[in-house]
Amino acid sequence: MKTTFLPYSATDADGNVTGIIRDLIPDIMKTLGIPETAVTYSGYQSYDDMVADMAADVIDVAFPVGGGLYYSEENGIYQSNPVVSSPTALIYQGEFIETTTSRFAVNENNRMQYYYVCTNYPDAKIDFFPSIEDSLAAVLSGKVECTTLNGLRANEILKNKKYADLSIRQSSYNDDRCFGVKIGNEGLLKLLNRGINVLGSDYAQNISYRYTGGLYSYSFTDMLSDHMAVVGSILLAIAALIVFLLIRDIRRTRKEVEEKDKASRAKTAFLNNMSHDIRTPMNAIKGFTALAASHLDDKDQVRDYLDKISVSSAHLLSLINDVLDMSRIESGKVTVEETEVHLPDMIRDLKAILQSNIESGQLKLIVNTQDVIHEDIITDKLRLNQVLLNILSNAVKFTPSGGTVIFSVIEKPSGVKNTADFEFRIRDNGIGMSKEFQKTIFEAFTREKTSTVSGIQGTGLGMAIAKNLIDMMGGTIEVHSTEGRGSEFIVELPCRIKSVPEGSGSLPEPAEPLTDSPAGQQAQEDDGSMPDFTGKRVLLAEDNQMNQILAENILTSVGLSVDIAGDGTEAVEKMKNADAGYYDIILMDIQMPTMDGYEATNLIRALDDRKKAEIPIVAVTANAFEDDRQIALNAGMNGHLAKPYDIPAIMKTLKELLK
Q1: For residue 110, how many other CB atoms are within 10 A of its CB?
Q2: Cβ contacts of 195 within 8 Å, gap of 6 or more
Q3: Residues 111-161 pLDDT 10s
Q4: Taking a C-beta distance cutoff of 8 angstroms, is the pair 428, 487 a contact?
Q5: Nearest CA to 593 among 645, 541, 539?
Q6: How far is CA 566 from each of CA 95, 595, 618, 623, rounded to the nearest angstrom?
Q7: What distance, in Å, lies between the first and last C-alpha atoms of the chain?
Q8: pLDDT tens digits for 68-101?
């Protein structure tokens, strides 16, 4: 809590807490029915000091925090739902022109203001000052072009006469103020979010007006000016009240309209983004499925097509999983998750996804990896795949028939130990771009006129998404293009190098077949050696008939006898009526009519016959995230398998539980 950060929080003359926080915490506890608990408040002048104390467990909750999920999680903070949200105001002097947002004054103690400028004005230069008052003074003196104020604070602060020459412009970006808790404290976060949701979105907004008056220092000079004419002052006061009420009503109306527009834009961006990202692997799946159907007499060819379908399906599943993670979609941020990446596998997967488009367009794809020393790196595989696939698919799309796309991977030395700078270059001889469009290509919803006229489909979101992902991963992306001659995209990304034995092989020369990684070879060997569960019996609880057929075929192929229950109630009855030991394992769907999988598991675990009650139960469900796995385990299940069915994972789980 910051001691001078009204209307959110402050310390009054007696040293007591004031601001929104004084009303909010007691009301949350009262609303949620929490017994009366002593709450202590600590004031901070510095956002960083407040975050540091929370990391050291000196405080449990920080308020206010903001700047978005990416920056908060980078600081070790879980950010709650917005307590209050208002448009940020740009404060400037003179005429508002294009260069007004080129240089900002930022309060060095207000990290949220810094994050806001970095996120929404990434090209702006930032000068730091000790306080917001010093930042406003810098604007007045011309040292900087502008600064920012939260919308709830701006009007009151600028009432001070010394800021009479400053102007205010409401930006199109909202500034959220949230609670912050230490990463790992999910219980407290859920409690706070529940309280915020119950109180409603207008709660904090309405009480904030009680505290904004403390931001306006009413001087003796102001008082003399206001009382020069009593009648005039009264008229001005009435006019000011009317204007205030009108502005408040306009703001409320504008906020409602902006929220509707924001939701509409988010929905449109979501649908466009998913259409663009999903269609590429889906096209590969459809194409190779058709090819496999036309080559049924050629087992090797069909196997190759099925491998390519599997690669594209895995990529498609990754995208769908990303879509289902609504918290990341709503925030516009995603978490970078570093994993081991074998470059030959990644390149082969990209080629497989793009192959049908390359062949249909009669294009030539050249892969050049001669400058790569280390095949195994550590980075976010899904994000890197998204970026490269986006750029490669655009290169294929905008290159006429008979053209060439060159994909080069270059490894450069880095000054950081066990790290190398990898450069991914994608060059085509397609239609190219104008110099004007190259300036805005990484902005959302921008498209080149020539591409629009040509009838080539696109959303204008792809490059903006790629830029954001690369920024999150600590890399850079740039483009060079000439109209009519083609384009080249250059992605530079620092990657940690996985330790490999001395003398291990590097990536092959260009145009040579890429070798499988040892992990890939082992996976193929494992796929070819299926276990034998003859004599074992499984109870399959699944309400979808197609899934019943598919699962039964998979299970009977390894010797299992299968009994099917159409819902949780039937599964419980079959267990009650069967002899102990009749079933060896239960595969339990979660979302079923009549009774879901969790309730069915609880009833089975409560059976009087302990041998029946302790039978292994595995969740087999489309609820595929880590939270879902933990819920299944907490419900008394022994394992969790995600749909669509992953046969190696199913076999591995059966081996472990049917020893």
Answers
A1: 21
A2: 27, 28, 29, 31, 32
A3: 888 988 998 899 999 999 999 899 999 999 999 999 999 887 888 788 888
A4: yes
A5: 541
A6: 70, 10, 16, 19
A7: 56
A8: 788 888 889 999 999 888 888 999 999 999 899 9
